[in-house]
């Protein structure tokens, strides 16, 4: 057993009771646990209106659809479903994934180009593992998905944000970030982007901007990792076709059934160029041997036996109604603030007065029986204290209205205190780190 862990911890200014502290790999320093995580245990209580987690409303999925699919799967493929599978995933599901991707404008691909994963978070991990050496640069939107940030940090990447505007990634900022990193002698390994209903902002990259970003990345020889979990969940009009529909060599496309079916099935996929696909299969086999055959066959039977397009339409209507309830409540109770107006997905991004700190305000919010996600979780560089992400996907419209009303009481109460006593800043240096995501920060 190591004998120097306490000495090492003392040198860092504290006492660590883990006897294996000195044995961990250096990269585990990126696996930090946010203090916000404890508050989400409180937020999960039924009396708390949670506007925090990006959880789909799975109750909109008729139980009989899943029951029918499961029974048929076990009757016709039970032995295969309960057995090991290949690292690439079952061919039948990969064929259906091709059909699904045509709705995003992706045509001409082969099922052989698809690798099935255990959710798209697994795909993010695999891609990062394949491409990132410590210190390599990953470019991504400002702000971006907390789960991806945690993964990138765990592989010791140099994560650099690129500013956005109403059309998505700012082209000049992206080009400047590429050139700056290379001038420093850094390798820019890929650009990670969520172009449809971005998590956390809800912003959608315009069709013209997608072409411009692709052209720039081709010219600069930068791989694009396109993460698209929400693309089919549009409200008023369909989002532009996927960036992958414009090019099949410079784009890795990530998809998932978590938002259009259920996160519990843990099935995602990657559409990759041939060489990368082979590496992905090897990475899957080395980490988990194979994705769950049971879950893959369940999704396959669901797609074959149900009207899944109609079910996606049902989800769209449900989330549109809740988006409208969220925006109306914000307009009624917090008209002094500003927020994004998403045309799909799960989230709106709210700008607070700069005098407020969303992380420090969260304990008071949970005491007032409302929860949100502080903006700091979506930045790699400590920004976001004056922003919050609100999710409208899970609560009913009435609960959303109640939650926003409670949130308004919290915000207005904080502003009254500041007006009376002034501001103070008790942020620690640890606030400049980003942490592994709590389970419901999707």
Question: Could you give a short description of this structure?
Answer:
The chain is an alpha/beta fold and 442 residues long. It has helices spanning 5-11, 36-43, 63-81, 91-102, 119-131, 146-154, 171-183, 207-220, 274-288, 293-305, 308-333, 358-367, 397-421; strands spanning 49-50, 114-117, 137-141, 158-162, 164-165, 168-169, 188-193, 223-227, 251-256, 268-271, 338-339, 347-351, 370-371, 373-374, 387-391.
**Largest sheet: spatial strand order:** 2-10-9-8-7-3-4
Q: Helix coverage percent of residues?
A: 40-55%
Radius of gyration: 22 Å
Shape: globular
Could you give the distance between the termini?
38 Å
H/I helix tally: 13
Describe this structure in words.
The protein is of the alpha/beta class and 442 residues long. It is built from 13 helices and 15 strands. The strands form 4 sheets. It has a 7-stranded mixed beta sheet, sandwiched between helices. The two termini are 38 Å apart. Residues 1-13 and 429-439 have low confidence and may be disordered.
